[in-house]
Amino acid sequence: MTRMNSQIETEFDRAAQARAKNNEGQARVCARRAAGIAIRDYLTRRGTHIPGSSAYDLLNLIKEDTLLPPDLKLVADHLTLRVTEEFKLPVEADLVADARLLCDWLLNN
Question: Which value, in Å, is the radius of gyration of the alpha carbons in the chain?
Answer without folding.
Answer: 13
